[in-house]
DNA sequence: CTGAAAGCGCTTACAG
DNA sequence: CTGAAAGCGCTTACAG
């Protein structure tokens, strides 16, 4: 197979120097318009493309971002959290819109992901996504910071202020979910999800939940909180524990849709009617939420906007511009599991 | 911020030449074991990483694959086909397992995606995924071929034998879906999905469907075939057309789960009971399939295996090894929309 | 407006 | 086993 054309080949064909070819292809006004167009035409005809390795090496930037999706090791290999998939879609689009390429990688939390991409000049910066145990990777973030890696992280605000975090307003989401349940006349609301600092996003949702309760002079009851990570089976288990406890409850606020769907399955199995006996609200609005039976009332995170902001913020960081952490507002999506009138 | 360490910095610290550093880091047996280890230790300590742009430029390969997901322009921007998302996950994993990086990009069919990645040396090869109108991009494949780009395409077998295609056995999927419906006593089966050569995958499913009918001496009825692309709304529309026609039918074979779910919504709206009045089978087994109401019987494609085979085949192609197109068998997943006994 | 030249950071024949 | 040197294909000061 014919080896690829280089700028020297183009120069030869155009009867100019290689430097002129390089300028013309970058559309430099330094080059005479006519020769510029002639060179561009020849390049197109010869199907010439600038060698990115060479130009990146020369300019010392890659015009590439890396997306690291950190999976909880407990997660079933085949089932990626649909929320991340949705974020992936929007990040891909936003990256392309900015003229950057996107390197995607799924990583176990345990592995040594912290450095490779930017250090090896494959990417100018990194976007981190992950629902893992926060404590497990806090020190990795410190390391990234120490290396001056450009990165932005999805999720709750970080206590180290140097870490740029972008996320949805989990506290507000917890508030509006709980307010909605209260407005439906529910008083004994169980919370399914980790509420410790190991999962700052879930914790913020829980804190918002508690705040909404207090607004109505209801004292949050720790007996009604059950740990769960964001999987269907974990939600199933947590709901079973709740049922086994024999404590009174008329609603469940699940820290994620996956948890809610697992809880739904547990309730159904025990003959509990949703929403008549127990109302449920989830979190994320993943695609399956609207197809659950009953359809799942949930807190929607605007992934479209989130992807755009993540990419924009990271690019600003790379360019040395001013950036601040940001919280994106969430929306309540009312469906049949809590609030929508029955068909 | 301190600029990144280079192999020269390491060489200086280790008191050897830069060439020796390069060799040591690639673990070349040419270098004395002791010095090799000393150099590696220093590199680690200084957090040195080989500059990929430089090494790729030098070796003329990128150790990166590109994944191009071509979206149908009619598709809603926010809703990526969940089946692709699932493929994306498995391809990412398979790529990482082979020590390659993955560049991901979503493209409109209309845009000029054909060449850029490999031509610019950003990727060694391309994986193409897409449910668009086949005719629209057939000529782009020709162009890729003409440029000697290494690529593998997901889907139906291509009539140009030089195109390496990997896909699930759509014909077999159509056969087993239809056999299952027939075994349930259904006789008048509508097919929702394009059956022309514009969508070779759907066409193969349709042909399998027809073959299964013929096995039972049933003549396929073109009146029962309705075009649809793989979206929920297209399925909704197609089912409505079917209902409006007033033709007798007791089952629907939808060319994709998304179509099936749209059809389910249309039937529900018209008061048709699924599965009692009409049974439905979809295709893909996307996550929502099991949460549909009733849960959706469907043909499962093994995306895990598919991703592995796609990546392996592409790598073989790149290395100049023998590769052949491949069809992966599909499985019937029986749920309540057709075949599973009611709870 | 154009060209000759340096240099980005590696890998790898070549010589010893 | 090790080093000096060439060269991958660009971009961009520098000189004209």
Automatic annotation (TrEMBL), chains A, B:
InterPro entries recorded: HTH_LacI, LacI/GalR-like_sensor, Lambda_DNA-bd_dom_sf, Peripla_BP_I
GO molecular function: DNA binding
Keywords: DNA-binding, Transcription, Transcription regulation
SMART domains: HTH_LACI (SM00354)
Gene3D superfamilies (alphabetical): 3.40.50.2300, lambda repressor-like DNA-binding domains
Segments forming domain HTH lacI-type: 5-59
Top-rank lineage group of the source organism: Bacteria
Pfam families tied to this protein: LacI, Peripla_BP_3
Stored PANTHER family: ALANINE RACEMASE (PTHR30146:SF120), LACI-RELATED TRANSCRIPTIONAL REPRESSOR (PTHR30146)
Protein name as annotated: LacI family DNA-binding transcriptional regulator
Source species of the chain: Shewanella aestuarii
């Amino acid at each position: 197979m014919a080896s690829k054309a280089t700028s020297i080949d183009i120069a030869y064909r155009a009867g100019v120097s290689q430097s002129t070819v390089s300028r013309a292809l970058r559309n430099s006004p330094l080059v005479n318009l006519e020769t510029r167009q002639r060179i561009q035409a020849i390049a197109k005809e010869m199907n010439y493309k600038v060698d990115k390795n060479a130009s990146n090496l020369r300019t010392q930037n890659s015009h590439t971002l890396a997306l690291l999706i950190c999976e909880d090791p407990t997660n079933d290999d085949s089932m990626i959290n649909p929320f991340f998939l949705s974020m992936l879609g929007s990040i891909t689009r936003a990256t392309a819109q900015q003229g950057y390429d996107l390197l995607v990688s799924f990583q176990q939390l345990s592995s040594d992901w912290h450095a490779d991409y930017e250090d090896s000049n494959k990417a100018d910066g990194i976007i981190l996504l992950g629902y893992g145990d926060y404590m497990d990777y806090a020190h990795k973030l410190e390391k990234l910071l120490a290396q001056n890696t450009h990165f932005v992280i999805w999720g709750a605000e970080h206590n180290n202020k140097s870490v740029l975090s972008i996320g949805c307003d989990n506290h507000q989401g917890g508030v509006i979910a709980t307010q909605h349940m209260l407005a439906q006349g529910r008083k004994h609301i169980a919370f399914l999800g980790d509420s410790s600092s190991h999962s700052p996003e879930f914790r913020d949702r829980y804190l918002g939940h508690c705040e909404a309760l207090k607004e109505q002079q209801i004292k949050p009851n720790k007996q009604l909180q059950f740990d769960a990570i964001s999987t269907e089976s974990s939600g199933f288990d947590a709901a079973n524990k709740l049922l086994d406890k024999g404590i009174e409850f008329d609603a469940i606020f699940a820290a994620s849709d996956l948890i809610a769907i697992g809880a739904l399955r547990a309730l159904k199995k025990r003959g509990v009617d949703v929403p008549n006996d127990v109302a449920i609200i989830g979190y994320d609005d993943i695609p399956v939420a609207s197809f659950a039976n009953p359809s799942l009332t949930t807190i929607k995170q605007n992934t479209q906007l989130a992807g755009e902001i993540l990419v924009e913020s990271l690019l600003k960081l790379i360019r040395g511009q001013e950036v601040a952490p940001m919280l994106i507002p969430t929306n309540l999506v009312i469906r049949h599991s809590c609030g929508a009138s029955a068909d």
